[in-house]
Task: inverse folding
């Protein structure tokens, strides 16, 4: 989407849309964020100023229903679903004609809220509005619109958000292990997560031991990080150092994120190091140097460059066009990230419209499976141009798409074959055992002086997290 | 640990400061990559290591957004030069430098050099609209100073004059005159207690640039690098005289001390 607009003058963005035009009204999904006092904070299309009266109406609606001790949740019309989400002093509104369920839309609003938190922290937003109810939060969020726009585009086009799971790049497990080992060796006090990303998919993630004993990294936090990387990639030669909050990990504290590409000028392989120490830039940047050297020594970059997503034809099941598989059977002791695997979207789903149509079918199946009133375990859905089957068990959640003429029996056989294939390939498709490291020096070895000093600062680092 | 795995130690640190959207990232991009392309508002700060002859110059491109204000003094710690950037078509962007950014430079070196840069000159000044891609930019700088009156004429026009055929862009109202920048430079010297010393003259330290056309961009960076050269040499000398002092150790100690005082 960005690529196509390059020739456009910089001032022609979503913000400049005429909010009275038909095209504005016809957008698939509008998202608005406003403060409790009704001040506009963000609008996906059109500037917040131009929309302030619209937002005023929404606010009036919200406060009218609130006054009756009845929090407004959603409004339906023939064409649109309007969903409200109030989080602390912020009100988020989605107006959609996408036919998604209310729960799904609310989940998407929650992502928007989390992305705002990731930039400002929940504590500071509460503090600001306690202090001044009328505060114009755009002062702090100005410039972040593109990050929120980017998030909403991803939410529409990437099923990771729907499934709240991470998509990792298929990789020979030996290669993934050696990448993890490279990360494990390049550590410094207060470093807590080392993450390697290629083509917007996870390669590996290595975590500080003590940190993951208290809390695990949630997929949503990783999504926010990946979106941040995407949004800051415009100037790829530099090394970025920025505060970022992981709202599900801890909504009130910042991590300091080091972001740098390992393969300029292509910039497809990105290293992300998270520290709890604001001042650690140079130490963390040194970790990158070590990682870079080890990767060169092992020729890792060219191996990564060869890795790519797979084609559904590799599964060898005729009539199967596409699927999404999310396992639950990962040993919990590893505090594993929830992941899913899915082949490329190929013909007949190669155009943007067809991709979106398939995703919408999946969204429909997902909403039936997760319906709050009548959840289902298995759905066989014959659509106009394809047949879909969704199945959830205690071990996995699976969405499959077949050519239209497949019979139910055939589909079931195909799924058995598919599950067997996934089992065979699982080492390659998933990160099985996330490795850990410890940046705290071994207490038995540490004497006085430098070592114990280091340990102190590590502990301080963690304290600031709590 | 192999020596090679350490970062090439930067000899000197240069920091770009200024409100969001004034064009800091674009300026640096123009200088290092010789291009003007679409940018995204910077998050936090971005660190670049620029090889300049035998020297390694680190450049911090910081975010202008208020959200990241708290980090500014960290990026400035130990800086040898600070580029205070504003947008010539936006008066507020100059005012912000004084209100919001100047105090961040308290952590910079004592002998830190300050440059005031009015960017987006292509929007107000026909001269800056010509492409200045290659060398020879420094010549243009002197020309610019001779013809300093021209932008004034433009700024006196309530409506922009019709742009000549040959010029692609539109002429906007210039909100910040060169004199305003010079006056601000004077106030910086006073704020830093530097005005009596043989400090650098404002004619030399107030620039008008265009990241879009490249106008004056090389001149800005090359002038600054020339000026920080003495501090590079001094630092290299100091390191030679006292080989026991390791940069890493200094950094670590500095960081820890700073933390205990600020928290
Ligand atoms: N006409 C013109 N536009 C410019 C110039 N420099 C930058 N811009 C535009 O101004 C906008 C902001 O530029 P950036 O370089 O991202 O600004 P910044 O100062 O880095 O902003 P933050 O990172 O948010 O602090 C972009 O749309 C640029 O295309 C210039 O010299 N002339
Ligand atoms: Mg920038």
Result:
């Amino acid at each position: 989407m960005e690529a196509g607009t390059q020739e456009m003058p910089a001032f022609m963005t979503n913000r400049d849309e005429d909010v009275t035009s038909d095209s504005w009204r016809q957008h698939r999904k509008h998202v608005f964020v406003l403060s409790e006092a009704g001040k506009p904070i963000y609008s996906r299309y059109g500037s917040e100023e131009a929309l302030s009266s619209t937002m005023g109406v929404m606010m009036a609606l919200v406060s009218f229903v609130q006054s009756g001790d009845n929090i407004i949740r959603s409004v339906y019309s023939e064409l649109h679903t309007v969903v409200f989400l109030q989080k602390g002093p912020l009100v988020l509104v989605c107006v959609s004609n996408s036919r998604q369920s209310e729960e799904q839309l609310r989940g998407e609003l929650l992502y928007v809220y989390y992305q705002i938190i990731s930039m400002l922290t929940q504590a500071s937003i509460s503090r600001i509005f306690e202090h001044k109810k009328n505060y114009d939060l755009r002062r702090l969020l100005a410039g972040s619109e593109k990050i929120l726009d980017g998030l909403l585009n991803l939410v529409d086009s990437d099923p990771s958000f729907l499934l709240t799971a991470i998509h990792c790049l298929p990789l020979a497990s030996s290669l993934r292990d050696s990448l993890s080992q490279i990360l494990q060796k390049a550590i410094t006090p207060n470093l807590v997560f080392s993450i390697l990303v290629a083509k917007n998919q996870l390669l590996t993630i290595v975590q500080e031991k003590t940190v993951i004993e208290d809390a695990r990294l949630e997929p949503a936090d990783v999504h926010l990080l990946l979106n941040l990387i995407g949004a800051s990639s415009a100037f790829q030669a530099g090394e970025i150092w920025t505060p970022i909050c992981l709202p599900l990990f801890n909504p009130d504290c910042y991590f300091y994120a080091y972001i740098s590409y390992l393969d300029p000028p292509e910039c497809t392989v990105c290293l992300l190091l998270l520290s709890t120490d604001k001042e650690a830039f140079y130490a963390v940047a040194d970790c990158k140097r070590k990682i870079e050297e080890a990767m060169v020594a092992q020729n890792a970059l060219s191996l990564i460059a060869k890795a790519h997503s797979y084609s559904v034809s590799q599964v060898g099941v005729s009539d199967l066009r596409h699927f999404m598989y999310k396992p639950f059977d990962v040993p919990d002791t590893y505090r594993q990230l929830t992941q899913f695997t899915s082949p490329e979207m190929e013909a007949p789903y190669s155009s943007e419209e067809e991709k979106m149509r398939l995703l919408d079918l999946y969204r429909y199946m997902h909403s039936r499976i997760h319906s709050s009133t009548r959840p289902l375990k298995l759905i066989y859905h014959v659509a106009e141009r394809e047949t879909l089957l969704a199945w959830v068990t205690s071990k996995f959640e699976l969405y499959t798409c077949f050519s239209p003429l497949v019979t139910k029996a055939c589909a079931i056989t195909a799924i058995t074959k598919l599950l067997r294939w996934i089992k065979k390939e699982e080492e390659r498709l998933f990160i099985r055992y996330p490795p850990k490291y410890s940046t705290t020096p071994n207490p038995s070895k540490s004497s006085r002086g430098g070592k114990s000093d280091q340990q102190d600062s590590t502990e301080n680092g963690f304290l600031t997290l709590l | 640990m192999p020596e090679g795995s350490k970062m090439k130690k930067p000899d000197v640190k240069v920091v770009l400061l200024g409100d969001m959207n004034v064009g800091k990232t674009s300026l640096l991009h123009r200088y290092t990559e010789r291009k003007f392309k679409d940018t995204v508002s910077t998050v936090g700060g971005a660190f670049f290591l620029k090889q300049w002859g035998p020297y390694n110059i680190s450049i911090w491109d910081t975010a202008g957004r208020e959200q990241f204000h708290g980090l500014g003094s960290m990026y400035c710690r130990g800086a040898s030069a600070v580029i205070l950037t504003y947008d010539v078509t936006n008066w507020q962007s100059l005012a912000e430098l004084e209100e919001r950014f100047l105090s961040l430079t308290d952590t910079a070196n004592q002998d830190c050099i300050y440059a005031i840069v009015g960017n987006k000159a292509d929007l107000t000044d026909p001269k800056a609209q010509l492409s200045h891609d290659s060398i020879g930019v420094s010549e243009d700088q002197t020309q610019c100073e001779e013809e300093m009156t021209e932008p004034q004429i433009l700024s006196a026009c309530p409506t922009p004059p019709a742009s000549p055929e040959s010029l692609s862009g539109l002429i906007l109202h210039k909100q910040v005159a060169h004199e305003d920048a010079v006056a601000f430079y004077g106030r910086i010297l006073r704020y830093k207690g530097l005005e009596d010393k043989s400090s650098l003259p404002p004619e030399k330290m107030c620039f008008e640039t265009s990241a879009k056309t490249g106008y004056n961009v090389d001149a800005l960076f090359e002038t600054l690098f020339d000026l920080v050269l003495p501090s590079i040499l001094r630092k290299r000398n100091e390191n030679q005289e006292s080989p026991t002092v390791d940069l890493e150790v200094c950094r670590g100690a500095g960081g820890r001390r700073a933390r205990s005082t600020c928290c």
Remarks:
- Chain B touches chain A at residues 2, 4-7, 20-21, 25, 29, 32-33, 37-48, 61, 63-68, 70-71, 74, 248, 251-252, 255-256, 258-259 (CB under 8 Å).
- Residues 1-5, 134-167, 243-263 of chain B have pLDDT under 50 and may be disordered.
- The CA atoms of residues 158 and 173 of chain B lie 8 Å apart.
